[in-house]
Sequence to fold (226 residues):
Amino acid sequence: DVKVTQSSRYLVKRTGEKVFLECVQDMDHENMFWYRQDPGLGLRLIYFSYDVKMKEKGDIPEGYSVSREKKERFSLILESASTNQTSMYLCASSSLLAGGLPNEQFFGPGTRLTVL
Amino acid sequence: GQNIDQPTEMTATEGAIVQINCTYQTSGFNGLFWYQQHAGEAPTFLSYNVLDGLEEKGRFSSFLSRSKGYSYLLLKELQMKDSASYLCAVRVYNFNKFYFGSGTKLNVKP
Fold:
């Protein structure tokens, strides 16, 4: 059974703290993604990675950074957490189709982050 | 920019058929995906279209018209467990990114 796991289901942090969200996939997928999901806004892409040590900005990268040192692990870092980063964070991975297109995504269970 | 629209909420009756629409205005379109998301859970993949026409997978079918920027997800023989949000996502050529609609919450009533 394929699996994407995230380090925490719920997390509460204080403004200004550095926050690490970890994501691990066991499917040997090339692509990994970080999204945040807010009511009425859908899933918005923060960063994605198509290979080890490679990263690309998504639509809302400000205030975030990422790290991919190993193929199976993709970390999201909030450098200095702010209250407007309170959200549900979803990690996903996908394989590559012929031609380099990403296939359907497999999602982790999500981390609900609250910044006080 | 990229724009994907879905109805916010729909209600249907158990055993019925429901159609959830998705319209998009994107540049570099190269595929449309549908996901199901139960409350508090992760989205799971349902269906995928890259060419025009209908894709059928059991009780679920998805249709795409690229010229109209339109897709729909058709759910037949509705069951209570189909109560969930349904997300439409467009894949674009620009770094092969995905853009999601805000989702349609489907309520299935007895």
About this structure: Residues 62 and 70 of chain A are 24 Å apart (CA to CA). The first strand of chain A starts at residue 4 and ends at 6. The mean pLDDT of chain A is 93. The radius of gyration of chain A is 14 Å.
